[in-house]
Amino acid sequence: ELKSIASAEKTRAVMLEPLPGTPIVLVSLLPEDGSRVETTESGSRRNRKSAEVTVQVARKQLATDRQTRIGIITPYRGQVYLIKKMLKELQKQIMITTMTDKKNFI
After folding, report:
1. Which residue from 95, 82, 97, 96 is spatially nearest to 45, judged by alpha carbons?
2. pLDDT of 16-75, one tens digit each?
3. How large is the average pLDDT for residues 77-85?
4. Dist CA 39 CA 85 (whole Å)
5. d(CA 104, CA 44)
């Protein structure tokens, strides 16, 4: 279960309404949470802890509503590959891309 210990000042954005029909989940991880950025063989980046949390949130939502359409946008191709590997069996229900490739997302 994810819990926030951040102050209300730092999390005030969660009180803003998302665009109609486009909910969003943002999670900030710290080194104390086990977050660590790695450089891939190709020079991209990935963060295993971030990927694990992303996969956990996506699976939980799909368990609640199998009709949900989920899109995951991340800044690095290395992160995209890692999340796709972790969600291999759900790739038809979840679209995963980088911020620069998101034009093909919709």
Report:
1. 82
2. 555 445 566 777 788 888 889 999 999 999 999 999 989 988 888 888 888 877 888 888
3. 94
4. 17
5. 20
Residue-level length of the chain: 106
* Residue 2, both tokens: 């994810």
Q: Which residue has the higher pLDDT, 100 or 43?
A: 43
Which of helix, strand or coil describes residue 39?
strand
* Residue whose entry in the numeric block shows the structure tokens 């309404």: 17
Alpha-carbon span 15 to 7, nearest angstrom = 13
**Identity (one letter) of the amino acid at 6?**
A
- Would you tell me how many other CB atoms lie within 10 Å of the CB of residue 83? 22
C-alpha 80/C-alpha 46 separation (Å) is 8
Strand (E) or helix (H) holding 80: helix 77-86
